[in-house]
Amino acid sequence: MSNTSPIYIAGEPFPLAPGMEQTHPFFPNRHRAVLEALVARGVLSAKAIRKASPLAMSSVAHLVSRQLMEQLASEEGLRKAMIAPEGCGDLRQMYLPPALAAAGASVAALRAAWRGGFGLHLGGGFHHASRNGAEGFCLLPDITLAIDSLRQQEKGRRLRVMVIDLDAHHANGVAADFAKDEDTYLFDVFNKDIYPKGMKPKMAAGKRIFLPSLCGDAEYLAKLGKALDGALAKFMPDVVIYNAGADVLAGDPLGKLGLSKEGLAARDEMVVGKVRQHCPRLCMMMGGGYTEGAAGAVADSLENLHRKFGLFKPQPTSRLLSPAYRAR
Ligand SMILES: [Zn+2]
After folding, report:
1. Cβ–Cβ < 8 Å for 112, 60
2. How many Cα neighbours within 13 Å face the side chain of 322?
3. Distance in Å, CA 81 to ligand 1 centroid
4. CA 41 to CA 43: how far, in whole Å?
5. How far is the CA of 219 from the centre of ligand 1 (A)?
6. Model confidence over 29-52: pLDDT tens digits?
7. How far from 70 is each of 49, 132, 249, 313, CA to CA, in Å?
8. Ligand 1 centroid vs 245 CA: distance in angstroms?
9. Strand, helix or coil for residue 4
């Protein structure tokens, strides 16, 4: 048996379509750079890395609305969601396979967390997409699909899932998808001044923390720490999905917050430490991050998590029944 939890990557990286650099500060291979850094530093063994199978469009169709399927079939719908300029080429051919591959990796990482205590998708966290629509560079709601697939797999069991979304943007897709689901809790910390502005009246149960632009380490960590303990203790999740966006870093052209790379590592350490006190299963996804230094900062943070918590080592199975789950 391997002594390392499986780490998933999507089999197909997102390409940079011609002209897309005008509308999005893409760094399509950021997650591969993180992976290579972790392997080079000896934090991860190359053997632990799995390429997840992409989801089939037919299985996605069972879980999302017809409206989203129609949008994904239309060039115009895709162009709008990807904020792509005219003449970018065949967006469907370019972006649907990597979106299906990324969703497959999120599904696999959550299942790994469910089985073994920890799962990581070095990518994912497309939190602006919902079952009803693609937007904000997010074509498929991979977080929703992962939760729905796990619930399908565990049929008949009531699973309490907490999504801790610390990407700099509001997780509007996740908030909409679980608006009527009391077993899914969204803990969402984001810059209130950037896309998507405004809140829908019906949103998932949970906690929203609004940050001002350029918010730095001290204010960020104080607000996060104060609220997260209470949320975890109150909700008692069976599994946590942590969308650890690195677009909170200072200088990020989209996130517009002000964390240092040490602040990013402290944030991740705080989250994993608190989750470990309350919940035995954690699935991490990477979210956004568009600065030159994002890959290095994420690799440093994951290395720190591994050194502090043995993050990539499987958990003893005795830990895997959370108090809430045992009580049901
Ligand atoms: Zn973001």
Report:
1. no
2. 25
3. 15
4. 6
5. 19
6. 788 899 999 999 999 888 889 999
7. 34, 10, 36, 42
8. 6
9. coil
Residue 301, pLDDT score: 98
Strand segments, DSSP code E, in the chain are 7-10, 49-52, 118-121, 161-165, 184-191, 205-211, 239-243, 282-285
Q: Predicted confidence band at 204 (pLDDT cuts at 50, 70, 90)?
A: confident
Any bridge partners for residue 30, and if so which?
A: none
Q: What are phi and psi of 98, to 5 degrees?
A: -65, -30
Q: How far is the CA of 248 from the centre of ligand 1 (A)?
A: 8
Which position has the token pair 């530093």? 41
Lowest mean pLDDT among 42-46, 255-259, 266-270, 310-314: 310-314
Residue count of the chain: 328
128 is catalytic: yes
Domains of the chain by residue range: 7-327
Could you tell me the distance, in angstroms and rounded to a whole number, from the CA of residue 165 to the centre of ligand 1? 10
Q: Which CATH class is domain 7-327?
A: alpha beta
Q: How far apart are CA 124 and CA 147, in angstroms?
A: 13
Residue 198 pLDDT class (50, 70, 90 cuts): confident
User: Cβ(105)–Cβ(66) under 8 Å?
Assistant: no
| From 127, 128, 169, 170, the catalytic residue | 128
* Eight-state DSSP code of residue 192: T
Task: Determine the distance separating the centroid of ligand 1 and the alpha carbon of 205, expressed in angstroms.
Answer: 21
Structure tokens at 69: 């399927």
CA distance 272 to 53: 27
* Residues surrounding ion ligand 1 at CB below 5 Å: 167-169, 245, 247, 288
- Pairwise CA distance, residues 305 & 34, whole Å: 14
